[in-house]
Amino acid sequence: PDVGGSTTPFVAYETGGTWGDAHSVTAGPDTGTQYDSISSVACAHAGGCTAVGLYLTSGGSAGDYAPFAVSETGGVWGTATPISLPASMPSGENWGAPLVSCASATSCEAAFSGLTADSALATWVAGDSGGTWGAAAEVPVSGKLATYGGFEPDAISCRAAGYCAIAGDDGNATGSVANEVSGTWGAAQLLRSEEH
Q1: Cα separation of 30 and 56, whole Å?
Q2: Under 8 Å CB-to-CB from 144, ≥6 apart: which residues?
Q3: DSSP strand pairing (48-56 vs 76-77)
């Protein structure tokens, strides 16, 4: 929906199989006034969900989008906040639409694509612990995958806090996967069928 010239994302509730009215997401002080959309939502339990998406940065022009997150607690949605990005990244970076998975109501992780400082395609992850999002960090890639062009996320799934997996590709439909164990992401690898 267009509100005052700004594209604003909405959230809606389903209870007992019936969808209620949609409600707009509240913008935070650091997310500007224009949003693109919510790209992914995950619910750990009824009334406890997290949504992520992209917003047009303050003072940015078309294409200057960055990721944001907003959480629901006890059935009430909070204020959208930007996900912290690496200070080394150039301003105006065009980040890919983020994906999110929640292992519990207090533990979520978001994954999104973006370019590294040397313009290589990479996947970035950020974690939410108890309602506070940490800064995004790059998922490392294996040497062979790096030569294929990088790593772009297509899906993320978390079974417990600090234990997630990302399925993706190199931007050219070459399948790859990365795993997180005890809070540390291992290097993304080409799927075995692609190694030959």
Answers
A1: 11
A2: 190, 195
A3: unpaired
Nearest to 46 by CA among 68, 26, 16: 16
pTM for the structure as a whole = 0.83
DSSP 8-state code for residue 182? T
Contact 192, 147 (CB under 8 A): no
pLDDT at position 72 over 80? yes
Residues in contact with 58: Cβ distance below 8 Å, sequence separation at least 6, in sequence order: 30, 31, 32, 33
pLDDT digits (tens, 9 = 90+) for 73-103: 888 888 888 888 877 665 555 678 899 999 9
Sorted by sequence, the CB contacts under 8 Å of residue 65 that are 6+ apart come out as 36, 54, 55, 56, 57, 94, 95
| String of DSSP letters for 122-146 | EEEEEEEETTEEPPPEEPPB-HHHH
The helix/strand/coil state of 147 is helix
